Amino acid sequence: MTVKPMPSPNSREILCQPQNMMCLHFSQRGYLNRRVANLYFLMISILSCTPVSPVSPITNVLPLSLVLLVSLIKEAWEDWKRFQNDMAINNTPVDVLLDQKWISVPWKKLQVGDIIRVKQDGFFPADLLFLASPNPDGVCYTETANLDGETNLKIRKALEKTWDYLTPERVSEFKGEVQCEQPNNSLYTFTGNLIIQNQTLPLSPNQILLRGCSLRNTEFIVGAVIFTGHETKVMMNAMKIPSKRSTLEKKLDKLILTLFCVLFCMCLLGAVGSGIFINRKYYYLQFSKNSDAQSNPDNRFAVAALTMFTLITLYSPIIPISLYVSVEMIKFIQSTQFINNDLHMYHFESNTPALARTSNLNEELGQVEYIFSDKTGTLTRNLMEFFKCSIGGEIYGTGISEIEIGTAQRNGMKVEVQKSSDATHEKGFNFDDARLMRGAWRNEPNPDLCKEFFRCLAICHTVLPEGEDSPEKIRYQAASPDEAALVTAAKNFGFFFFKRTPTTIYVHESHVERMGKVEDVPYEILNVLEFNSTRKRQSVVCRYSNGRLVLYCKGADTVIYERLADRDNELKRTSREHLEEFGAAGLRTLCLAYRDLSSEVYESWNEKYIQAKSSLRDREKKLDEVAELIEKELVLIGCTAIEDKLQEGVPTCIETLSKAGIKIWVLTGDKMETAINIAYACKLINNSMKQFIISSETDAVREVEDRGDQVELARFMKENVKNELKRCYEEALQYLRTGSETKLALVIDGKCLMYALDPSLRVMLLNLSLNCNAVVCCRVSPLQKAQVTSLVKKGAKRITLSIGDGANDVSMIQAAHVGVGISGQEGMQAVMASDFAIAQFRFLTDLLLVHGRWSYLRICKVVTYFFYKNLMFTLTQFWFTFHTGFSGQRFYDDWFQSLYNVIFTALPVIVLGIFEKDVSASLSKKYPELYKEGIRNTFFKWRVIAIWAFFAIYQSLVFYHFVTASSITGMNKAGKMFGLWDVSTMAFTCVVVTVNLRLLMMSNTITRWHHVTVGGSILAWFIFVFIYSGIVLPKDQENIYFVIYVLMSTIYFYLTLLLVPIAALFCDFIYQGAQRWFFPYDYQIVQEIHRHEPDASKVGLLEIGNQLTPDEARRYAIMQLPGEKSKHTGFAFDSPGYESFFASQAGVFVPQKAWDVARRASMKSRPKTSRKN
Amino acid sequence: MSSGEGSSQSSSKKSRQPKYSRFTQQELPACKPILTPGLVVTTFILVGVIFIPIGLLSLSASERVVEIVDRYDEDCIPSDQEKTAFIQSDKTNKTCVRSLTVPKKMQHPVYIYYQLDNFYQNHRRYVKSRSDKQLRNPENEDLTSPCEPEARVDNKPIVPCGLVAWSLFNDTYGFSVGGMNLSVNKKDIAWDSDKNYKFGSKVYPKNFQQGSLIGGGKLDEKIPLSEQEDLLVWMRTAALPSFRKLYGRIEQDLEANEMITVVIQNNYNAYAFGGKKKLVLSTTTWIGGKNSFLGLGYITIGGLCLFIATTFIVMYLIKPRPYGDPSYLSWNRNPPGN
């Protein structure tokens, strides 16, 4: 057996090197940063080893290594865990065919071309070509939960030619060659050929078993290894880790850059000074031309240049070494300990806590100004329930949707919701109409159409039944909840689909011939024309047992209407009215149609179909084209309406968020009416708002559309959109100018958006939409979602957040600054692409207003504090330089200098970054406006930094001058004098005490950890200096020897220690007092309002989620049903795969998103029943 | 995030509800200090009230110190000669007589300091040019590497080596009042730690000032370093380019208006680099020598605090801000739309 990638003819043998596929590389975060930082520290370390260095190398290198060590240990630990995992996986045994026997070997020994056997529930060790299984028809079932989180089983089917290679004896006779594509990351596509016995057989994803999946419901399979190790599709996917950096961090880089400039200026100044200073007249320094270059007065330039390096080493603490490590640590704790563990964001029903998938973006959450939200599954529950239908021009279903209730309430009407007690209600079915239930439909005006309606529901789908065959116990595995709801509906109408084989669907039909009669009817499925986003429809060709050939089709109204036979116009008209009515009620609609086929028509078509199916190139496109040939002249049956309820707490959440100054945009694939209604229902839009609607569904557009000239249509549309935009924008400006309180809302549909996103109109669209409080984009493709997001992100330079649940939101999630995925009920694609995952939309309140705001506040404080303490420290050193003849003599002992950041001031700032909060969580939510401080970036403006810089300069002057000026005369009763090291140790003591006290001054919350660390840091300094000045070190100069004891024997020490820190903090205190008093921040007012309230906001939180209302209990029970976590493919309008489609249409290159491709292609992997070739 | 290939099976049953802890829910007990106007004013007044007395005490202590400062470098050199040549010459007579008047009674002990200005004892080249190992232990005589360029002479180690020792100050002072000599006590002028630990009692000067250039004072080779207190004082390098160093003590009261005659051996070359030399006689109090900086610092900060406190009170009276008034919230001050 040989495997050949198509372009290169050599077969390859690659060791299997399994690695964990989805581990998040924390080491990736700020990687570049750290590289620049490391480079800097390396440079400083090298400099400190040269004679120009004013400090000894060890003191400089050791703390640096300590800092690096901390991050290294973290990474090493993660690597170790990964390594152990790898080892375990690498050594898992698998059966390989050797000498006609199955021999167990570890995974890592696998080679391309090996034939292996995988038993039930085992994982596939590599990408395999599926050869045979003991199941009839050569099928096997796989679970792909590890790839995409989908728990429903997928069917794989081996090529018929290879079915009987089951026993070792048989398999060893197997000889063949595989030609296949190069390894790639597209999980659900595969093109290749198998050449056996001089026959070339096309291979499809259907014969490929991917590494990471597991075998289910199949005793064993035999397969040939195609890709191993890093070439497997899973591993090719694992390489891509989206990496985002927060805006604040980018600004931090600018700050660091500024500090570099300051450092350079300081050094330059000192260097010039040293060049001027050097003079032979200072004979006691013995400057002569025989001395080293730095002391050679004949070459002042060399002196200055070398002093430059000396000073760079000396002033290097101005760049905070430990800042990045500290911030990383703080963020890590924030995300792993706080966000992931917040009980407020734990969703009990789906048993899902919040998850921060990256800790890079915590503070970004505190600055979000625009939220782009998907509708289905994000604002709504995505629990699809069959709610209403229209058959043959008649509406059935008595329910009133939540949105209708909402609409009615807006119009001032009271709606009584009465539920008849006997109404059937199960998951996916919330329908009540006596005219249809229990066979009553036979008495309706159109019983035949009803029958077609139900059969269409029962036959035209890709659902897999699971479990027992009784109506009560069966479970449906469906690609989307819509689909499951439709099949469930058919079941309740008496058309119970209970069994699927690759070629047949069995339906348990009641009441068809006469009331009470029950029979099992098999339908032979001849072709399945699958759903995809271009087609927006799905068809099945089936043969009745009596030989009748029918094509059943269901899909979006627009595509179905285009393909209807030209008759029954009355029915079409009424059905369209019904569709609009359903749409207005916020329901998701689908049209059903059928077509009777003659066997000649079918046979001639089927040939083309088979041809298309076996083509190697553009198979999908060709299949679509062939499908087009038969999906025409359809007969309309009716339409279905499915309700998707709003998630709990969505309106409140949206209200809170908009109070917080966040603008929410809804981007949905739904129809305009549905979208507007949802927007009303969740309080995004209300009647007092001025709405601008830019729609392509106008008569004028339709007229041009009917003419059928695409070029003309495009031109007209563009003109139309441009005029509309201009009109709306002018009107909006009118409203703004008059200063009226009217809020504005913009509704735009996908087609118009396509033109509005044109570079020439983009600016106008942006200006208009930025002035609107709410924007609803309907009928948009995933690519457009991403485009709109980046329009605001890049055009308006505002911070954006995207939230969504499905694969169609992936591009939007990745485009925004922060991507949030809804987890717990949906597929994993959105979550996998996201930065944060929450279970419910309403948790955004906590995520943004509490965690985001606090993180922002904390990181700002930490960064500014670091900036301050290092600048101040370095400046004291700088002032000293002026008094040393610019020689670069250090003021502080080198150990003091290097341990300053690492020990004496390290921990309190981390505690600040972890515990600081201005107001409690409940107040954060009570006063959402506080969030605006983050949007305005109040705490990390250049102005704020300038204030800190001012205080740093002031304090450094106080430290240096107070201590030196007060120590020029006799220092004690015995008249003895201090030397340099006595003075500097005194100054350093003051610095350590002051810097730590300053931290307490800037804390709004002081826990006992603050006390411990601040006290501990000061204590650590004293302990250190006691020991350090008490022992003899193997150094040339023991400057600090006994210094602290000398110092502490004088009264001067204590007087200075009291005076200098207070004098230094004096200005800061005045500033803080005056600022609070005269220019208070909002949070300060809130603190004052609630100053007497104990922080008991969360008492009894433990009980939250355990007390369920009956309704919640029901929902919970539903959620707990196994196997029901089906995935949303956006059956009707909300579809994956748009992105690449639209992109290719527009000629834009869109990188293949793994999960997007997964999504699209996963539909292809569902039972596919082609006629045997 | 799912990790490992077998995680999917175990995930469904177990509750993933986070455990409650005060830490993870960010509910640690904490005090939340608010800088209320009252607190600000109280703090200022408190600091003022504590600081001013301390300042006054320190200041008065410093004021009680009697200090005589006499700059002699200019006057102790014949004005008609080239200064540097004069001071470097072996043949010139460098004796110089000065008379000082005692302004107030000086109680013994009266401390004698010499003060140098524009002398960079804190220059990097200077500070590092010493070997503490050599100073402590006679066995480390050869450890002179940091002492460049004054490490060795004729390849023999210099003890004590380095620029610091080499440039030892060597002016001497003799005092007399009314013809009667005042004895100068030169014991105990260095810190005990220097004497006992940093400088060895068995280390004797060797090859000192034997080179072609003589930087300053010479040392008696029979006396161990720990006893050479002038050297000890000199080698505790000063922080600033202008510094005082203790020379000795006069163990006798000096009465007001007494004339003291000082005989100075003006040996040290401060002329080359334009430095000043001063002789200082000073008494001490508990705070040390005459330095009003600390006292003034305390009084200034204390005074400023009281002043600021008053200002705050006045400003509060002029422009009061109701405490915790919701109308001061920014969104209430500027209703949206304006």
UniProtKB/TrEMBL annotation, chain A:
Subcellular location: Endomembrane system; Membrane
Keyword tags: ATP-binding, Magnesium, Membrane, Metal-binding, Nucleotide-binding, Translocase, Transmembrane, Transmembrane helix, Transport
Recorded catalytic activity of this chain's protein: ATP + H2O + phospholipidSide 1 = ADP + phosphate + phospholipidSide 2
Gene3D superfamilies per record: Calcium-transporting ATPase, cytoplasmic domain N (3.40.1110.10), Calcium-transporting ATPase, cytoplasmic transduction domain A (2.70.150.10), HAD superfamily/HAD-like (3.40.50.1000)
Transmembrane segments: 255-278, 301-325, 862-880, 895-915, 942-963, 983-1000, 1012-1031, 1051-1071
Membrane topology: Multi-pass membrane protein
EC number(s) on file: 7.6.2.1
PROSITE patterns, alphabetized: ATPASE_E1_E2
Entries under PANTHER family matching the protein: PHOSPHOLIPID-TRANSPORTING ATPASE DNF1-RELATED (PTHR24092:SF180), PROBABLE PHOSPHOLIPID-TRANSPORTING ATPASE (PTHR24092)
Full protein name: Phospholipid-transporting ATPase
Gene source species: Coffea arabica
Gene name of the encoded protein: LOC140016726
From TrEMBL, chain B:
Alphabetic keyword roster: Membrane, Transmembrane, Transmembrane helix
CC per GO annotation: endoplasmic reticulum; Golgi apparatus; plasma membrane
Domain of life: Eukaryota
Stretches that traverse the bilayer: 34-57, 296-318
Intracellular or extracellular location(s): Membrane
Family: Belongs to the CDC50/LEM3 family.
Protein name: ALA-interacting subunit
Organism of this sequence: Coffea arabica
Gene that this polypeptide is encoded by: LOC113736870
